[in-house]
Specification:
The structure holds 2 protein chains of 2 kinds. Chain A has 22 helices and 47 strands. By secondary structure, chain A is an alpha+beta fold. Chain A folds into 7 domains: about 120 residues, Roll (Ubiquitin-like (UB roll)), CATH 3.10.20; about 140 residues, FAD/NAD(P)-binding domain (3-Layer(bba) Sandwich); about 110 residues, 3-Layer(bba) Sandwich (FAD/NAD(P)-binding domain); about 60 residues, Arc Repressor Mutant, subunit A, CATH 1.10.10; about 140 residues, Probable tRNA modification gtpase trme, domain 1 (Gyrase A, domain 2), CATH 3.30.1360.120; about 70 residues, Alpha-Beta Plaits (2-Layer Sandwich); about 80 residues, Elongation Factor Tu (Ef-tu), domain 3. In chain A, helix 4 runs parallel beside helix 5 and helix 15 crosses helix 20. Helix content of chain B is about 25%, strand content about 40%. The two termini of chain B are about 20 Å apart.
Chain lengths: ~900, ~160
């Protein structure tokens, strides 16, 4: 015998059970506690529209028990109530309801402010729908994109007819049905038609049928996310037909939220599909043709209907053997937490009939949340009962077929219920008719602001139960027409797990160089530096550092942004782009350049190398390449210049050979002249190293003799291996990011993004040498001219700390006990034997400080690099 | 079943006047117009030099400002074969694949920039920047796990 576990006890399952039907058969009547007053709530609609059966299933809160198929072994518990949903201490709020009127949360807990932290915790403890699970396994959902001609939302008669008509016309169609097809129907003609239409649709080659897949919203595009059991589907259709049908009207009367009050479809489904009578003594109140079907199903499945209140138009067709009160109106349900009696009023008078189930079937309201979402102009139409509730099967088929070809039924003003007088309008938020009256009296006099103030329609059902009553209330109160118009529905219209909403996302996308496997094989600890996966260290950072300072080392710098720029206007383009001169850059020379935005702030930095008639070779920082490419293309388009830009960042690998013995190493692998005279600092040339064609760049980021070898990515491994092999006698070691950070800091080189801020000008950074204000124009020049006249309140400085301790990066810089700036970079310098740092300081009394303190370590502000200030080593 | 084969493919990028690129000789390669002023030539990798030279010769005469860059090293490619080959795009991309073949589309696949050449109903070539190769191949096998993905040995692209 299969079973589920409900709050510690086993509950037997029968074939076809939902969690709700299984629990109800086992005697469970209280399924939830209401959001505000903690009133006990039981099964009500069984169509997934109301909030009453939200439970936690296998640790997942807010699951609709009526829509959740029961699976053996499931663990189910109710979401709310302390110490339990059956006996909830917080139900005392109902007795204190005079203290908690509508909008009370806008008016209370404001004073004294010191109490708020306590109240905040209490409110969070009391309110809510279950607990967010903390220990569920991390699940990655996948997405599935569809591009149909037509998306149909809703698998009833109208939706299936629309999909079938379009598919037969040769269009591609996706149909999404939230539940199992026809499973919310107790039986009969409608269910049979659904099954036959479905079979026909499934046979169409261009039709895709998604079952148990709920559309959660309609966004611009149109784009419709559909939450299915296997994928989060994204539909990008040309047109959308919404055929979500109608929900049985939630009747508002005193006692309408008592356990034992049912909507007709819910009670009939419980009886017809699961063979369970909703109660031993049933009072039935019906007002629609459909209600008679419910009455018949209930009686056929053993329910004793003790009274049926029906209008004269239906009374003659009522099943025999039922006491019918012709023209009887349901006016109240009585009981403390469960219904004990129904009060019916008729021309003969008012009568209270003892019962334990009151089934109400007094109308239909469109399930039109999705139709109330789209922005105007989208190709979205309704079909079937969502347009006109109560239509026959044949009418629904016609409606669907018309919608498929764009001839949608016109949505007129809805058949609204009477204005609510007493009882709960909104079951989700515990909003009564009296609450709406009070909100109106306080001046909230349209549906939209009544909604915002009272939160009516804003609960889990998203207005499925109460939207029509809100409109009826506003309409009855009078005023301009717009005061009673429909409110905008917000996605998600159906609950969606966070993991589903994030389907297809959240994957780590690291960029890897061609040497990635080599780094791993060498035991490198990798880190994410911007988007790139790079070696942090190969195990001994200090040894890597000293290899650069005293011997020779190599580093994979393939991540550097690298661009080829060509075309007849390339020079003119770069002259406008950069604040340095470009026209005088002869072939073979390199020039340090900074990139500014229109505000005169530094975006990035790098090198410009002239390739003669072939154009220019530009480098940028590793993290900047992608953004810079867009930046370059943007200005090319803006200026309409004949320039082509080619991002060579990935096709070109790069290895930096650095250290006093770098030339020794390379001379073992090349016949080209690389001595200092023929190939001095700040030059580039093409050389062949280990048989590989490389563009060699004399650079100096680490402060030693350095030659970057830019080469085809497919040669990276061969070149790397050759350098290591040839350098073995020189005790070569590759170095990682940790060593690089120490080396560049000793040279005082900035890291864009770490040391710079959004408003870092060249002057603040001490990079004036890279800006030629005598140029007629460059990006940022007008801004720099204006900024120059305002004075500088903040500047970037180098700080030499006393002793071996280096303050942490980000540490506050203090002057005489007051904050005067912050460190952006800091390290211990092995070659200098003390801590060093870079950071920002402000003026004090008109002067920039000359000494500061960081976390108790005194330091002096120095000018120029900490290491080799004249640059003799890198020019060696 | 879905067969996923890493393939070696030459990628030659040609930049020039849009009208000049209209007449770019394909020389046996698949062509794709990726931008107004840029066209791609894709072929088996052995043809990369000949393809580059042919394109340079053409552009040198037709558009002196045009440039041709062999970027074969910068891209990774796969051939995806099977009746549900197009499902790779459906699972990993918002790109709509036209029904006619051959078709060329470009956009984000698995959240990275990509080009796709749909050669036949059951054959698709996917090209992404080489730095993302590991990510894209992993995501294809994850997102299409239910389609029984079989990863094949590396081979030359067959166009």
């Amino acid at each position: 015998m299969s079973s589920i576990e409900f709050e510690g006890r086993a509950v037997e399952l029968k074939p076809g059970d939902s969690v709700a039907s299984a629990l109800f058969r086992a005697g469970v009547r209280i399924f939830s506690r209401s959001f505000k007053f903690h009133r006990p709530r039981g099964l009500y609609c069984l169509t997934g529209d109301c909030p009453n059966c939200l439970v936690t299933v296998d640790g997942e809160p807010a699951m609709r028990a009526c829509c959740t198929p029961a699976q053996p072994g499931q663990r189910v518990r109710r979401d709310m109530g302390w110490p339990s949903a059956s006996f909830d201490v917080f139900s005392v709020f109902w007795l204190l309801r005079w203290l908690l009127p509508v909008g009370f949360y806008y008016k209370t807990f404001l004073h004294p402010r010191s109490l708020w932290p306590v109240m905040d915790k209490l409110i969070r403890r009391v309110a809510g729908l279950g607990e967010v699970p903390r220990d569920l396994p991390h699940v990655h959902r996948e997405t599935w994109h569809h591009h149909p001609d037509l998306l149909v939302i809703g698998g009833g008669v109208a939706g299936l007819s629309a999909a079938l008509a379009a598919a037969k016309a040769g269009q591609s169609v996706v149909l999404a049905e939230e539940h199992g097809f026809g499973e919310k129907l107790a039986g009969g003609e409608t269910k049979n038609r659904v099954q036959s239409l479905l079979a026909e649709l499934r046979a169409q080659p261009k039709a895709t049928v998604l079952e148990r897949a709920a559309a959660v919203g309609i966004f611009e595009g149109p784009l419709v996310p559909i939450d299915g059991p296997d994928f989060l589907h994204y539909a990008h259709p040309a047109r959308v037909v919404v055929a979500t049908g109608a929900v049985e009207r939630h009747a508002v009367f005193p006692g309408n939220d008592l356990i034992g009050v049912w909507l007709g479809r819910g009670a009939a489904r419980l009886a017809g599909a699961h063979g369970i009578a909703p109660g031993a003594r049933v009072v039935f109140a019906g007002d629609t043709a459909e209600s008679l079907e419910h009455l018949t199903v209930l009686r056929a499945n053993g329910a004793q209907v003790v009274l049926a209140a029906l209008p004269a138009s239906l009374a003659s067709r009522a099943p025999t053997g039922v006491r019918v009160v012709v023209g009887g109106k349901l006016v109240a349900a009585r009981g403390r937490s469960r219904v004990r009696a129904a009060v019916v009023e008729s021309p003969a008078g008012r009568e209270a009939i003892s019962c334990d189930a009151l089934v109400v079937s007094v109308g239909l309201d469109p399930r039109d949340g999705l139709l109330r979402q789209p922005v105007p102009g989208l190709a979205v139409v309704g079909a079937g009962e969502v347009v006109r509730p109560g239509m026959t099967v044949a009418e629904a088929e016609d409606s669907g077929r018309r919608a498929a070809v764009g001839r949608a039924d016109v949505t007129g003003d809805r058949d609204l219920p009477g204005a609510p007088q007493a009882g709960f309008v909104c079951l989700c938020e515990d909003i009564s008719a009296g609450d709406l009256e009070q909100a109106w009296a306080e001046g909230y006099r349209s549906t939209e602001i009544l909604k915002r103030y009272s939160t009516v329609t804003m609960g889990p059902c998203q207005g499925a139960m109460c939207h029509a009553h809100l409109r009826a209330f506003a309409k009855a109160k009078g005023g301009p027409t717009w005061t009673s118009g429909p409110t905008t529905a917000r996605p998600p219209i159906r609950p969606i797990r966070l993991e589903d909403a994030a389907a297809g996302l959240g994957h780590l996308i690291d960029m890897r160089t061609a040497l990635h496997e080599r780094h791993l094989a060498a035991g490198a600890a990798m880190e994410l530096a911007g988007p790139w996966s790079r070696p942090q260290t190969y195990g001994d950072t200090l040894a890597e550092y000293w290899a650069v300072r005293r011997g020779v080392s190599i580093m994979d710098v393939s991540t550097l942004g690298k661009f080829l720029l060509a075309g007849r206007d390339a020079t003119e383009f770069l002259e406008r782009l950069y604040p340095c001169h470009v026209r005088d850059l002869t072939e073979g020379r390199l020039r340090y350049a900074i990139a500014l935005n229109e505000g005169g702030y530094v975006l990035d930095d790098g090198l410009i190398g002239s390739l003669g008639t072939a154009g220019y070779y530009l480098t940028f920082t590793s993290s900047g390449a992608e953004g810079i490419e867009s930046w370059l293309r943007d200005w090319i388009e803006t200026w309409k210049l004949r320039v082509h830009v080619v991002n060579q960042t990935v096709p070109q690998g790069a290895i930096n050979v650095a250290g006093p013995r770098a030339r020794d190493l390379l001379q073992r692998l090349t016949r080209d002249a690389i001595d200092n005279q023929t190939f001095p600092y700040s030059r580039h040339k093409e050389i062949t190293v280990a048989g590989i064609t490389c563009r060699a760049l004399r650079v100096g980021f680490v402060g030693e003799l350095s030659i970057e070898l830019h080469h085809s990515r497919s040669d990276s491994v061969k070149l790397w291996d050759a350098l290591l092999e040839a350098g073995r006698e020189l005790d070569i070691k590759p170095h990682g990011m940790d060593a690089l950070r120490m080396l560049r800091l000793e040279k005082g080189h900035i890291l864009i993004g770490q040391d710079t801020d959004f408003d870092s000008t060249p002057a603040k950074l001490g990079l004036e040498f890279a800006v030629k204000m005598d140029k007629p124009y460059f990006i940022g020049k007008p801004a720099l001219q204006r900024i120059a006249s305002t004075g500088m309140e903040q500047k970037f400085v180098a700080v030499a700390f006393e002793g071996p301790k280096a303050p942490f990066e980000g540490a506050a810089l203090m002057l005489d006990g007051s904050h005067i700036g912050n460190l952006t970079s800091a390290r211990f310098s092995p070659v200098l034997g003390h801590g060093i740092g870079l950071g920002w300081v402000r003026r004090r009394n008109g002067q920039f400080p000359t000494a500061v303190e960081a976390v108790g370590v005194p330091g002096k502000i120095i000018h120029g690099p900490f290491y080799d200030p004249k640059g003799d080593k890198l020019r060696a | 079943m879905l067969e996923l084969a890493p393939v070696r493919a030459a990628v030659v990028r040609c930049f020039g006047d849009p009208r000049v690129l209209d007449g770019l000789p394909a020389a046996g390669a698949a062509t794709a117009r990726v931008a107004r002023d840029e066209a791609w030539l894709v072929s088996p990798s052995a043809a990369r030099d000949a393809l580059t030279q042919a394109a340079k010769s053409y552009l040198a005469g037709a558009d002196p400002d045009g440039i041709v860059v062999d970027q074969t090293d910068g891209w990774s490619a796969w051939t995806i074969t099977g009746p549900q080959a197009a499902m790779v795009l459906a699972r990993l991309s918002t790109i709509e694949l036209p029904s006619q073949r051959p078709a060329f589309v470009q956009g984000a696949v698995a959240e990275v920039p990509a080009k796709a050449l749909a050669q036949a109903a059951d054959r698709l070539h996917l090209i992404v920047p080489a730095q993302y190769a590991h990510h894209v191949s992993r995501r294809i096998t994850q997102a299409c796990a239910d389609l029984d993905v079989k990863v094949l040995e590396s081979r030359e692209i067959a166009l």
